[in-house]
Amino acid sequence: MPIGPFEKLRREVIDAGLCTRCGSCVGVCTAEVIEFADPLGRCLPILKDNEPCAKCAAMCVNGCSGQDVHFPTLAQFTHGSPSTDTRLGAVKSLYVGYAGDEEIRKAGASGGVLSAAAIYMLESGIVDGAIGLSPNASEPWKFEPRIARHRDEVLGCAQSKYSISPVNTILRQLEQEPKGFRAAMAAIPCQVHSIRKLQADGFPAACKITHILGSYCGNILHFDAVRGFLAKHRVKDYRQIARLEYRAGEWPGKMRVTLVDGRLLEMPKFYANYLIPFYMMRRCLLCTDLANEFADISGGDAWAPIYEERGKGFSLIMGRTERGRQVLDEMIREGRLTVEPIELEAAVGMHSHMLDFKKRGAFLRMDSLRLRHKPVPSYGYHPLTPAPFGRLAFEMLLRTIYAVCSWSLSQWAVARLPTGITGRIFEQARRRWKGLTASTKRKGFGTIQFEVEPPRLLQHERISPIEDHSRGVEKNEISERHVKA
Ligand SMILES: Cc1cc2nc3c(=O)[nH]c(=O)nc-3n(C[C@H](O)[C@H](O)[C@H](O)COP(=O)(O)OP(=O)(O)OC[C@H]3O[C@@H](n4cnc5c(N)ncnc54)[C@H](O)[C@@H]3O)c2cc1C
């Protein structure tokens, strides 16, 4: 018997542990029968009240970023050519810099560049709205996507939110916007993968997104990370949260919870990173995109001592498409961005640990799952160069650490360690670990070769690669296709 689209999604992605929680399946469901169950728990899509899945164009399957994310096809669609660098993706312009406007820089997670770009595009009429994540007014521990129309609203969305927030649910709201509406969208890589797949398929709401502002992303955390952080401060009820910030104050910032009684619970960002091995969404271990390769503009932290010493906030900035480069050029000309160009290898060096984690580690983890006949995502490329023995051994150790940290007992124990001690132990361990593993992780990484499959034919040949349309407006006109059943 044929199975409905959601049933296919459930079997091949959700139950297979491959859901990225990007939110697209909810955002594209024309029958509006898909929703997230337990958003502060495992946060997985389900069918509302077990309603039957309507006959439809199966966009929830076609646009899913969990299982089939063919990088060569996405590169062809986004850039009109294969990626220029297999580690970072296509790069047309590359800088370290920050927002020229001090208020925006301060509001941002690193240099405020993504918010500055959204504000610039809104103010100069390039887009009509800018999608970002802002706290829910009555439940401020939850973050929800919104379409900002003014500077203040964009600033209300600034900052990185490290807990699972299915941003692509916004597609439902975007669909209500008039034809010709143009939106910028801030998003992490898995969300972007889905948006590009949907655009390649001509899904109207996704085609309204003309500029993607992609942040680098190492991983995302389950909301339990916040519960664990509160437990450490002996706060049992997350509903005591009046404000939740992951990057408050001077770059690199602090994880900060403001409670309804006015108390502040804080931990420097690097200390709060102790939460990662305990609460990371496990699907992130299989993601191979750190640098948001299919965005128009990517931004990450400029992790290098010369910038870190200066504080205040520096971003690594990449113009990836012609459209992205053009926006950056205009912003630089108008003084909205202060930048200095850097070399590609310097950009790789700033994130060499996480790049190794994504571009080598994720493939090793997938190999291991395949051996055990477990499902893995398919990316259309893989490393040709075998990892050296030291890297394999390191991977085994890492996997053991993650496994132990995912035990409830470990999470219970770490939540009871005094705050100062946990942060310091973690930071010491992190520094030691980085020092000890640096040569293992770098060995062979610079020369790593990938086998890349040819791009697949885009489903609708009339949709040319978006790179052909300098502002993306034209694309809206030519590529929207009605997919409602
Ligand atoms: C989950 C996550 C993991 C990250 N991991 C890394 C990393 O490993 N290395 C690194 O260098 N950088 C990482 N970053 C990126 C970094 O934290 C900054 O976002 C980036 O440097 C851009 O800074 P900015 O000041 O220009 O952004 P801002 O001006 O603060 O703008 C950020 C924009 O992103 C949106 N946003 C925030 N959180 C999310 C989210 N969860 N999903 C979708 N949109 C969101 C905001 O609403 C805002 O519009 C991560 C970001 C996130 C969200």
Description:
- It is a single chain.
- The protein has helices spanning 5-14, 24-28, 59-62, 71-79, 102-107, 113-123, 151-157, 171-176, 189-200, 204-207, 224-232, 269-272, 275-279, 305-308, 322-333, 344-350, 352-371, 389-405, 408-416, 419-442, 473-479; strands at residues 34-37, 44-47, 93-99, 129-135, 143-148, 183-187, 209-215, 241-248, 254-259, 264-268, 297-301, 315-319, 337-341, 381-383, 450-452.
- With 485 residues, it is an alpha+beta fold.
- The strands form 4 sheets. Strands 5-4-6-7-11-12-3-13 form an 8-stranded mixed β-sheet. It has a 3-stranded antiparallel β-sheet with strand order 8-9-10.
- The protein is globular and about 55 Å long.
- The chain binds flavin-adenine dinucleotide.
- Residues 108-115, 132-133, 157-162, 165, 167, 186-188, 191, 215-218, 220, 299-301, 315, 354 line the site of flavin-adenine dinucleotide (FAD).
